[in-house]
Every structure is written in structure tokens, then in C-alpha cells.
Design a protein that fits this description.
Shape: globular
Largest sheet: 6 strands, mixed
Low-confidence stretches: none
CATH superfamily of the largest domain: Zn peptidases
Order of helices and strands: HEEEHEHHEEEHHEEEEHEHEH
CATH class of the largest domain: Alpha Beta
Number of domains: 2
Number of helices: 9
Strand content: 15-25%
Strand order of the largest sheet: 1-2-4-3-5-13
Structural class: alpha/beta
CATH topology of the largest domain: Aminopeptidase
């Protein structure tokens, strides 16, 4: 057993679910068995602090919603979620709280790039992007030059791998030349859905400013893993007040039929 994982589980008041050589930390904030629940994935322990605090506050106020915090500790996250799916149970939604905001400003991710591999760097077609999206990025990232935005979102640069070959970000809509392999598939997140609407509203209420929907150059793998346990997935990060508003909104969303390992 990993001693650091045990210490982290104790610090978070969590259960350590083992799978293979690692583990999945499960932090449950459950008020009543059988209620709709939200799963929040953190990429580090700090990502779970705000949602867990928010859950404690709204549950104390009588909100009928449970929360499950997830933290992967040196484990194969997709396999661990598959293995423990019944233990985690039915979910209203699954959120990844570990994605960084662009420029550390509130936004919601609408798509994330995967990774392409090639033995040698080759020219990739530019990422399709309309004028509205380009203008939104320019407005959200005024400190970035046009060249920086183009490299991050439209013409990613190849980077050498320590094991040989080269990798580059791969956005949706890019036709790959012969010989280029997809190592991680890109991910498009639903934007015209009740979940994304209430998350956007929660951030707007908490921050007092507009909340754009933008592409985000970050690893989509954890969100893809969360899609294995629920079709409603999103990236969300904000202050405790934003989490409180988000949880209140999610409590009103239709929940799937309940199931869990206790039933």
C-alpha cells in the first residue's frame, strides 16, 4: 500500500479504493442514501477543497444532494472507475475540477485537445476556428500575442518525446497526414445542455462577470474517464460560492435511476 496515499486519505477523511498498483481516493459527503449525487474529480487534493466545503454548507442548509470527491493516486483512472462503478453509484453529473482557467480567469471549456504522435514532425492542417471563437479568445487572453494564440489553438508545435518521436496537441476537425497516430483522442464537451447552462450561471453569479465557452489546451484524459460513469461531464472550477450555486442547480436536474454497491 502506498504510504503517501494512506496519509492523503486520512487528511481528506476519504476511503482508499485499491486497483492494481495504485488507488482511487473516494471522499463521500452523503446526507441520505439514495439521493442524486455529483462526482467531482480532482487532479490534486487541493482541487477538492472548494467543492467539499461547498457541499458541507449546502447540505447543512437542507439541500437534497450527495457529493463524491474522486482523486486518482498512481492508478489507471479509467480502469479504476470501471472497477468501482457500482461502489460510486448513480450520478447526476461528473465534474473535473482540476483544469486550469486560461489566464486564471473564469471560463468553461468547450473542447480539449488530444495528442498526436509522429516519428518526424510533419505539417498539420490548421485547426478550424471561426471568427467568433477567435475574437472570444483574443478578448479573454489580451496578454497573449496573436502568434501565441495561434500556436496554442490553431497550429500546435511538435515536441520531442523522451522515448523517441514527436507529439503535438490534436484538436477536433484536423485531418491527420499518413503516418501520424492518435495517442489521446480530443474531446468536445456539450455546451447547449442544462448542466453547462447552470455551471455558467453559477460562475457568473459568483464572479460578477461574463463566462465565455472556450477551447482549453489541457489533458482531456480524466474527463474521458469520467464519461465512463456518466454521460453528463464538464470542467468546472471556481470559488466556494460558485460551487454552492452549482450544487443547488444540479440538485434540480433529473437524476438517473439510483444504484450503488449498498443496494
Amino acid at each position: 500500500m502506498n504510504p503517501s496515499a494512506l496519509r492523503l486519505a486520512a487528511a481528506l477523511d476519504a476511503s482508499l479504493l485499491t486497483f492494481g498498483g495504485g488507488g482511487l481516493l473516494l471522499v463521500e459527503r452523503v446526507t441520505t442514501h439514495g439521493l442524486p449525487q455529483v462526482a467531482v474529480l480532482g487532479r490534486c487534493a487541493e482541487d477538492l477543497v472548494a467543492p467539499l466545503e461547498a457541499a458541507a454548507r449546502v447540505q447543512a442548509g437542507g439541500l437534497a444532494l450527495n457529493l463524491v470527491g474522486l482523486l486518482a493516486v498512481e492508478c489507471d483512472l479509467p480502469a479504476a472507475l470501471d472497477f468501482h462503478r457500482r461502489r460510486i453509484g448513480a450520478l447526476v453529473a461528473a465534474l473535473d475540477a482540476g483544469l486550469p482557467w486560461l489566464g486564471d480567469r473564469p471560463m468553461l471549456a468547450r473542447r480539449l485537445p488530444g495528442r498526436a504522435f509522429s516519428p518526424t514532425p510533419v505539417d498539420l492542417p490548421p485547426v478550424p476556428m471561426g471568427p467568433l471563437e477567435r475574437n472570444a479568445l483574443a478578448a479573454h487572453l489580451p496578454m497573449w500575442s496573436e502568434a501565441e494564440r495561434e500556436e496554442a489553438f490553431q497550429r500546435p508545435r511538435w515536441q520531442s518525446c523522451t522515448t523517441g518521436g514527436f507529439e503535438a496537441d490534436l484538436w477536433t476537425g484536423v485531418a491527420l497526414p499518413a503516418g501520424v497516430l492518435v495517442r489521446v483522442a480530443p474531446l468536445d464537451l456539450p455546451t447547449a445542455a442544462p448542466l453547462s447552462d447552470l455551471l455558467r450561471q453559477a460562475l457568473r453569479m459568483a464572479t460578477g462577470g461574463p463566462v465565455p465557452l472556450l477551447p482549453l489546451p489541457a489533458d482531456p484524459s480524466p474527463l474521458q474517464a469520467l464519461a465512463r460513469i456518466t454521460p453528463d461531464i464538464a470542467a468546472f472550477r471556481g470559488p466556494v460560492e460558485a460551487w454552492e450555486a452549482a450544487l443547488r442547480g444540479m440538485a434540480a436536474l433529473p437524476a438517473p435511476p439510483h444504484f450503488c454497491a449498498r443496494c
